[in-house]
């Protein structure tokens, strides 16, 4: 009889310990399964609040209008350059009328050993441009200044259309060379001596009277 009681007590103790162990294992399993998900939510929330500002120079008439755009933080220079082009092509806030060609898209970006940034834009940037020499000047100058003001490790900017060099955007300025020398021209000089459009946007024919 005593042996049976002892066996029963041992059985109950083992059953109790088994229940405790089972509960512990279940708790650990659930805890570690749910914890990463909770941490992931916190991480996502933090990233959405991590922004930085870009200064974008938009062409408006015979001047540039500077606007500050806040975007999710990017650390790689090419990613920052992509954001600059995307914001530039959106145009200025509000109802301001800009000469930025509609429907233009960024196709690619790369920087060479001379720290020249090559910006490859869709043909809409050339085909949909409508403006005189002043409008063309500020369109290109705004793009150039937007890059130079936000990215330190760039010496110059060169525009490509559909992956190719083109002679001109609107018939007034060369695009065969980087933009720095052209956009450094004083606007007063251009107004007094506007370059004539000697050829079509297709880039055929000679060029004279432009700045490059």
What's the short story on this structure?
The chain is an alpha+beta fold. The protein is 44% helix and 18% strand.
Class by SSE composition:
alpha+beta
User: How many strands, which pairing sense, and closed or not: the largest β-sheet?
Assistant: 3 strands, mixed
What general form does the structure show?
rod-shaped
Q: How many angstroms separate the termini?
A: 111 Å
Rg, Å, rounded: 31 Å
The stretches of 5 or more residues where confidence is low (pLDDT under 50) are 30-46, 198-212
The main sheet orders its strands as: 3-4-5
Strand content: 15-25%
Element order, helices and strands? HEEHEEHHEHH
Mean pLDDT: 79
Strand segment tally? 5
Tell me the number of helical segments per DSSP (H or I, 4 or more residues long).
6
- Chain oligomer state: single chain
The helicity comes to: 40-55%
What does this structure look like?
The protein has helices spanning 2-48, 77-90, 124-127, 133-150, 180-183, 187-192; strands at residues 51-60, 63-72, 106-111, 116-121, 156-161. The protein has 212 residues and is an alpha+beta fold. The chain has a domain at 51-192. The strands form 2 sheets. It has a 3-stranded mixed β-sheet with strand order 3-4-5. Strands 1-2 form a two-stranded antiparallel sheet. β1 and β2 form a beta hairpin. The longest helix is centred in the first third of the chain and has 47 residues, at 2-48. It is rod-shaped. Mean pLDDT is 79; it is low at 30-46 and 198-212.
């Amino acid at each position: 009889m005593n042996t049976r009681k002892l066996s029963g007590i041992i059985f109950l103790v083992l059953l109790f310990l088994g229940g405790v162990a089972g509960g512990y294992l279940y708790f650990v399993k659930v805890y570690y399964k749910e914890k990463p998900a909770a941490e992931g939510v916190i991480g996502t929330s933090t990233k959405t609040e991590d922004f930085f500002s870009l200064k974008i120079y938009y062409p408006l008439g015979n001047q540039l209008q500077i606007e500050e755009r806040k975007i999710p933080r990017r650390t790689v220079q090419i990613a920052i350059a992509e954001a600059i082009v995307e914001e530039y092509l959106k145009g200025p806030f509000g109802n301001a009328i800009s000469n930025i060609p509609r429907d233009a898209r960024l196709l690619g970006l790369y920087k060479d050993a001379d720290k020249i940034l090559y910006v490859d834009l869709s043909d809409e940037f050339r085909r949909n441009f409508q403006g005189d020499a002043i409008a063309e000047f500020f369109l290109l100058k705004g793009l150039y200044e937007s890059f130079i003001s936000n990215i330190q490790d760039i010496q110059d900017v060169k525009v490509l259309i559909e992956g190719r060099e083109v002679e001109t955007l609107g018939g007034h300025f060369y695009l065969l060379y980087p933009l720095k020398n052209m956009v450094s021209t004083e606007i007063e000089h251009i107004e007094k001596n506007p370059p004539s459009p000697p050829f079509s946007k297709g880039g055929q024919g000679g060029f004279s009277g432009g700045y490059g």
